[in-house]
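User: Let's play a game. I give you a shape written as tokens, and you guess the letters that built it. Ready? Here's round one.
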């Protein structure tokens, strides 16, 4: 049975970092919302819960986005997919800010997540440079 992605996609640093960001976002959302399900977060009256749910759904886009760039056949398609990854990353940073303003007391978790997103962004920028050279 053929694999969905080339073997090296799972080993790519950007892909692994995207998975880390998702896991961290999910753990933070569960903590901030007292263990609510992601669907419950979206329908909550609390803005903090909604921002936490959005954080999870946005972070969920990163790893498949990296994999889709890795498997794209042409340059234009790769750049469009990278643009989508960067939009999701920017949205994650904004959601972190919104969570801070909504009264999340555990701001050290948000600082940790923002740092991981910055590292991921740097990886993506380096990857873009590599794609442009190829």
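Assistant: Ready! My guess for every position:
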């Amino acid at each position: 049975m053929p694999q969905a992605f080339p073997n090296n996609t799972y080993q790519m640093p950007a892909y692994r970092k995207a998975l880390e960001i998702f896991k961290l976002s999910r753990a933070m959302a569960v903590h901030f919302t007292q263990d609510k399900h992601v669907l419950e977060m979206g329908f909550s009256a609390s803005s903090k819960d909604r921002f936490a749910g959005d954080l999870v759904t946005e972070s969920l886009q990163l790893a498949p986005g990296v994999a889709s760039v890795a498997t794209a056949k042409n340059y234009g398609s790769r750049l469009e997919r990278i643009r989508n990854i960067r939009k999701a990353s920017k949205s994650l940073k904004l959601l972190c800010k919104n969570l801070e303003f909504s009264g999340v007391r555990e701001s050290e978790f948000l600082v940790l997540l923002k740092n991981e997103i910055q590292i991921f962004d740097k990886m993506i920028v380096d990857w873009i440079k590599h794609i442009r050279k190829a």
